[in-house]
Specification:
Layout (H helix, E strand, L loop, with lengths): L1 H21 L6 H7 L13 H11 L3 H11 L4 E5 L4 E6 L4 E5 L7 E8 L5 E9 L5 E10 L4 E4 L1 H5 L10 E4 L7 E7 L2 E9 L4 E10 L8 H4 L1 E6 L5 E7 L4 E6 L5 E9 L2 E6 L7 E6 L4 E4 L4 E4 L4
Antiparallel strand pairs: 1-2, 2-3, 3-4, 4-5, 5-6, 6-7, 8-9, 9-10, 10-11, 12-13, 12-19, 13-14, 14-15, 15-16, 16-17, 17-18, 18-19
Length: about 300
């Protein structure tokens, strides 16, 4: 009996150790955005979409790509992984394309595709889009060399894609059919779609198409006038921006009698504050119509208060 108990304990301990060893560690999207261009990926046996996604995930592991790999390993073209959220993975191996999407939750999304280059290499792109914690959207591009079996970062592609507006949110639309890359920005109730045509080696800027963003009015002094409060770590109000309909504004710490006066300008979907009678750089805040919030490059967020 004692030997049996000892044996069972040994099996359980071994199982736990193996489980701990195989548990997958992930890397934050913020770190990937900052560091992907610094690391070449080796031991890439083939240039198909599944292998390229797999080797990227081995190097920069994330939960969202891990879920995609699970679907690809089952040989599925499409799988709904969460019925309630509508979280779906689609795999189009023929066209070298994979993507995730959902019903509009805060879950991070990804997409990836492959272009065939005229020199016999391939260009691999993978994008990530997270609406919150953190709010981030970026793309990574790699040259795949079939002779050396390596994926080499090509950061110059993303370096050449610059925002049209000060604090614009950029999203990347990779081609599933065709070869055009579309880079979208949202500003002043419009979507600016910049189209990059494939020249055989890289996507090259071609034109910009502007479309109305349904239900989002153009920003004006009149519709932006209101009270915007920031929150501290405990969830209480900390500081306040008041925008007036005449283009003036004030900033203060809540509870304080002291305040700073500003004028402000509307630049695309950004509100830019300038201190009165003081030479200083504008402090620009991107306006999010969904959360009714203002956010600057330093990460300060002010939420619009309900009108009484």
């Amino acid at each position: 009996m004692k030997k049996t108990i000892i044996l069972l304990f040994a099996v359980l301990f071994t199982s736990l150790c193996v489980s701990g060893q195989t548990e997958k560690k992930t890397v934050s999207l913020t770190r990937i955005a900052e560091e992907w261009k610094t690391k070449t990926i080796t031991n890439v046996p083939m240039g198909g979409i599944a292998i390229l996604v797999e080797r990227f995930d081995d190097t920069w592991p994330t939960y969202v790509v891990s879920e995609v790999r699970g679907v690809m390993e089952q040989g599925l073209d499409k799988a709904v992984l969460n019925e309630e959220e509508g979280f779906t993975v689609e795999v189009d191996a023929k066209n070298g394309f994979v993507q995730t999407y959902d019903a509009g939750t805060d879950r991070a999304q990804m997409s990836a595709c492959v272009w065939r280059r005229t020199d016999g290499h391939r260009l691999f792109a993978i994008t990530f889009d997270s609406p919150t914690d953190p709010q981030i959207s970026f793309a990574c591009f790699y040259d795949y060399d079939p002779q050396k079996h390596v994926m080499t970062p090509e950061p110059e592609i993303t370096d050449n894609i610059r925002p049209l507006f000060p604090t614009a949110y950029i999203s990347y639309v990779l081609p599933r059919e065709g070869k055009d890359l579309i880079v979208s920005e949202y500003s002043s109730g419009k979507i600016y779609n910049r189209i990059y045509k494939w020249d055989g080696m890289v996507p090259v800027y071609s034109e910009t198409k502007i479309e109305p963003l349904d239900g989002q009015p153009e920003l004006t002094f009149a519709n932006m006038a209101g009270i915007y409060d920031s929150m501290n770590e405990d969830g209480g109000n900390e500081s306040r921006i008041v925008l007036m309909a005449d283009g003036t504004a004030t900033w203060c710490m809540i509870g304080s009698l002291h305040f700073t006066e500003f004028t402000y300008a509307i630049k695309g979907n950004a509100i830019c504050l300038s201190p009165k009678d003081v030479e200083s750089e504008d402090d620009c805040y991107d306006y999010d119509p969904v959360t009714r919030s203002l956010k600057n490059e330093q990460g300060a967020v002010y939420y619009r208060q309900a009108e009484k």
